[in-house]
Amino acid sequence: MARAPAPAPTGRSARSARSTRGRSHYSAAVRRASAPATPAAIAVVVLAGGSGLRVGRDRNKAYLPLGGRTAVGISLRTMAAATTPGLRRIVLVVRSDDLDLARRALDQELPHPPVPVELVVGGASRHASEERALRHLEPAIRDGDLDLVLIHDAARPMCSPELVATLVRTAAERGGAVPGLTADDLAAVGADGTLVPLVGRHVRVQTPQVFAAAPLLDAYDQAAVAGFEGTDTAACLERFSSLTVAHVAGEEQNFKITHPHDLLIADELLRRRGTRD
Asked: Within a domain: residue 81?
């Protein structure tokens, strides 16, 4: 397996002629996805650049024991299984300090992946890590070899394969797909400090998020020029792309491991699911 960490990308020479090619690659992706015999070519990106501070541990929470495995291993296996046969690339974005942990997790939990797992050292923020993954995939995206890019937080290991498959199918049909749970506990505050009606339906966004590859890369090109950093992938698309992004009902079990009790809940759910070999 090709597991050498990719160097941080330098230069932006490939960013100038993007809009026309982006639209043509997206149209080609939709055409290919509409034919059952030719699934959309997809790259899976799993982000594992967090820490263990809020869960009270001394290591990245993505590599803590969980149901006999690790969050990063479980996430990779789920994403890979749910995107086959269209899966073309798997990119695991890690902190430089976690390279050994990542390699160990791959050897133990994903010794025979459907495609090689490529390690990319992330940036100082989530947005920067996403951009480094996209720069790593840029040649394949520019050449039209990838139709969709899926981006997932390793800290959400409970995501079901069914949700992943629905997101991929929806993104292939619509351009983008994001899961989310209805947020029924929100209120809006006006300029005078009083409550005002909320407009529209609001959701709490989850991952994985799936988008047409070329428009996604174009959006990050524009974000780099503007100095913009989004809180998640969808935020960048919302700001710098006209791509249609559909909402897909998320899952209560697809929570993000953030606090100590989240580890306990996830561990118990995984044991009940029979994740332990």
From this structure: yes
